[in-house]
Amino acid sequence: MSNKETFDKWFNNLSEQEQDEIISHVIRTKLSISNEGFFSGPTGKTLEEGLFSGPAGSSSRQVCGGCGRPI
Question: Are 38 and 49 in contact (CB under 8 A)?
Answer without folding.
Answer: no
